[in-house]
Design a protein that fits this description.
Blueprint lengths: L9 E4 L14 E6 L2 E6 L2 E7 L12 E4 L7 H13 L9 H12 L4 E2 L1
Parallel strand pairs: 5-6
Antiparallel strand pairs: 1-2, 2-3, 3-4, 4-5
Length: about 110
């Protein structure tokens, strides 16, 4: 079970707004704090967006950090894609081409691997 101790955090289930699934059945959660928004899939931290205004939007100056678990499974990749689309970003896949793009983006300083 997800255990968040920050009293200023708002925790909610990730909704499937851009995915073909009706729901993610409580397997993905979003944690919002005043300075960031984070995605947890199966209680594992996957991604963090820092900055980007009040809604933490990537297309408004937000900066994306990914953990090594970002492509752990197809389901986690779907959670991440939904999270990115809801925050002004683009989809990533969990295939070799996507892994290469993420590595290149990290090398260029466009994203951070945490």
């Amino acid at each position: 079970m997800l255990n968040i101790t920050n009293v200023n955090a708002k925790v909610y289930k990730l909704e499937a707004l851009h995915d073909s699934a009706r729901s993610f059945y409580g397997k993905a959660h979003v944690v919002e704090t005043p300075g960031s928004v984070s995605l947890y899939s199966y209680d594992t931290l996957i991604a963090v967006i820092n900055g980007g205004g009040i809604n933490h939007m990537l297309n408004k100056g937000g900066f994306l950090s990914l953990t090594g678990a970002w492509d752990a499974s197809q389901t986690t990749a779907r959670h991440l894609n939904e999270f990115l689309l809801q925050h002004g970003g683009n989809k990533l896949g969990a295939n070799a081409r996507s892994r290469k793009k993420v590595k290149e983006a990290a090398a260029n300083g466009e994203i951070e691997m945490i």
